[in-house]
Fold this sequence. Notes:
- By secondary structure, the chain is an alpha/beta fold.
- It folds into two domains: about 1-120 and about 290-320, Quinone Oxidoreductase, Chain A, domain 1 (Alpha-Beta Complex), CATH 3.90.180.10; about 120-260, NAD(P)-binding Rossmann-like Domain (Rossmann fold, 3-Layer(aba) Sandwich), CATH 3.40.50.720.
- The chain contains eleven helices and 16 strands.
- Helix 3 (about 120-135) crosses helix 4.
- NADP nicotinamide-adenine-dinucleotide phosphate binds near residues 149 and 238.
Amino acid sequence: MQAIQLTELSGPDGVGLVEITEPSDPTQVLVDLHAAGVCFPDLLQTTGSYQMARELPCVLGLEGAGIVRHAPADSGLNRGDRVAVLTTAGGSWQQTVAVEPADVFPLPDAVSLTAGSGFLVNYLTVHFALDERARYRAGETVLVHGAAGGVGIAALHVAAALGLETIAVVSTPEKAAVAAASGATHVVLLDGWKDQVRQLTGGRGVDIILDPVGGDRFTDSLRSLAPNGRLVVLGFTGGEIPTVKVNRLLLGNTSVLGAGWGEYLRTNPGYLARQWESLYPLLESGTLTVPEPTLYPLSRAADALASLRDRTATGKVALALV
Ligand SMILES: NC(=O)c1ccc[n+]([C@@H]2O[C@H](COP(=O)([O-])OP(=O)(O)OC[C@H]3O[C@@H](n4cnc5c(N)ncnc54)[C@H](OP(=O)(O)O)[C@@H]3O)[C@@H](O)[C@H]2O)c1
């Protein structure tokens, strides 16, 4: 089967198309993938800057979607099922994967295989951030940085499904259009965003900020929170890891919270299944929607990664595997 392997830590050009042997473990679920998501951590792997570095050569990819070819008898899954999979240990940028039943998620008809290939990591991360970390309450407003990126778009969709208003912050008018099409209540451009947020909220500020970007906007984010506001740290695509002057937290009863979804799953068995139980009905009813990703052929995996590095990607990026 075809796969994309990372062979050297030279950035996106360190990946290449290879032929490898199909997995064949009868105790696991064998899934023929239609597509696989491209996540920011995949980009970080190509430079050795991800906290959970894999040994080279390795197949990248944390998620995908396809059709079950084989399932163990007691797994509750059947040959032919349409499923999304998490491959956090193994890699999904290959045509067939073998995964534990607990990492397989039957897709409702409303979610296509291509859309389903790239939503698990981001949707479950932002659901974790809003629900388990920020403890959102009805009527609250959520500001989303990097709102036209993979995590950002997921945040707009999940927040809307939970009945929360959103303010999307993006760097370009093109990205503003993407955020608006993804259901953002308001969209503001990065240049001058703090003043616009103040205006939009009548001076009060927002209740929750989801921040996958970090960098120099962090202090302005703290200034943009309403009393009892929560700023959730998700990542650092901006490169710089910000620091906090803690007197700012005291003044507004502000909380800065880390949200490391993968780590939380490792230390909280059963949480992933509970998350899926609460999100599945929303997906099935169409309350929570998943947009189609930008699909690259497998042969252009390096370009897909480069679009994240170069900040040109809008929405989710995925690789076609059929
Ligand atoms: N905590 C967790 O559990 C968890 C889970 C999944 C992902 N993450 C992290 O979340 C972050 C975002 O991932 P993603 O998939 O949304 O990435 P993405 O699709 O590439 O989007 C990231 C956004 O960051 C903004 N950005 C600002 N400065 C940037 C720069 N120098 N280079 C690239 N982008 C820049 C861009 O928005 P503008 O151009 O509009 O500013 C871009 O759209 C990553 O750090 C990832 O590792 C964390």
